[in-house]
Specification:
Blueprint: E1 3-7, E2 10-13, E3 18-25, E4 32-38, E5 45-50, E6 56-58, E7 66-71, E8 76-81, E9 90-97, E10 113-114, E11 118-123
Parallel strand pairs: 2-11
Antiparallel strand pairs: 1-3, 3-8, 4-5, 4-9, 5-6, 7-8, 9-10, 9-11
């Protein structure tokens, strides 16, 4: 059974940092994993992705500030977020595409599994 459980969200001031974690189960180290975010009234959008071979990609707003990484030994994927801005405020989701090798970083894996989300709030 596939499970994705996010943690690490919270409230921070503009310019601050947060590290989100996604604990996975039922996911191998060759599964495409991504982080998405959503604000009320808007569509969920991709933020960062790590593909089956370890290639990463980021949205324009995340480039240079966010880093996605995976710790395969513990089945965890992280999203390190620096220089946070109020417009980064959103519910952040971890997502996966199974089976392995079936997701593309070009479309943030086209996930078929989602976590429940963790809230990030950035104040000015």
């Amino acid at each position: 059974q596939v499970q994705l459980v996010e943690s690490g969200g919270g409230s921070v001031q503009s310019g601050g940092s947060l590290r989100l974690s996604c604990a996975t189960s039922g996911v191998t180290d060759r599964v495409c994993l991504a982080w998405f975010r959503q604000v009320p009234g808007k569509e969920r959008g991709g933020v960062a992705v790590v593909g089956s071979y370890g290639t990463t990609s980021y949205s324009d707003s995340a480039k240079g500030r966010f880093t996605i990484s995976r710790y395969n030994a513990k089945n965890i994927v992280y999203l390190e977020m620096n220089d946070l801005k109020p417009e980064d405020t959103a519910l952040y989701y971890c997502a996966a595409r199974l089976p392995a090798y079936s997701g593309s970083i070009g479309d943030y894996c086209s996930p078929n599994y989602w976590g429940q989300g963790t809230q990030v709030t950035v104040s000015s």
